[in-house]
Amino acid sequence: MTTAPRPVLVIAPSSKAKAAALLAGARADHPAARLVLLVGEPASPALMRAADEIWPEGAARGPARFLALMRRMSWMGFSDIYDAEESALTRFMRLCVWPRPRWHP
């Protein structure tokens, strides 16, 4: 019995070109996985086509929204997270997601 690959999360930076390159790299590394793009601003149509799912909660302002995002990320059971933003907040997120996926800067 084969199991479906676990999904992969890409935390998009503000640069759309860098986000597109990161999505392409994640797709090459995980061709069968579902790609989820976490964005803080509306995604361009090209990014929307490259990802399987878009999460617009990238700028989780306030503790309640941050905890809701961490819970959602934990429940998805991501195998890998690609962090293109590399901010203090996304570095802290590494400690909050359980079980801990592989985190790629």
Task: Lay out the secondary structure.
Elements lengths: L7 E4 L4 H14 L5 E4 L6 H6 L2 E3 L7 H14 L3 E4 L4 H9 L5 E3 L1
Parallel strand pairs: 1-2, 1-4, 2-3, 4-5
Going by CATH, what is the homologous superfamily?
HUPs
Distance from N terminus to C terminus (CA atoms, Å) equals 33 Å
Q: Please state the second-level CATH architecture.
A: 3-Layer(aba) Sandwich
Helix proportion range: 40-55%
Shape: globular
Residue fraction in strands = 15-25%
Provide the gyration radius in Å. Answer: 13 Å
Outline the low-pLDDT stretches: none
**How many strands, what sense, and barrel or not for the largest sheet?**
5 strands, parallel
* Main sheet: strand order: 3-2-1-4-5
| Overall pLDDT metric | 88
CATH class: Alpha Beta
N-to-C SSE string, H for helix and E for strand: EHEHEHEHE
What is the total tally of β strands? 5
CATH topology group:
Rossmann fold
Whole-number count of domains = 1
**Category from helices, strands and their pairing:** alpha/beta
Please, how many helices?
4
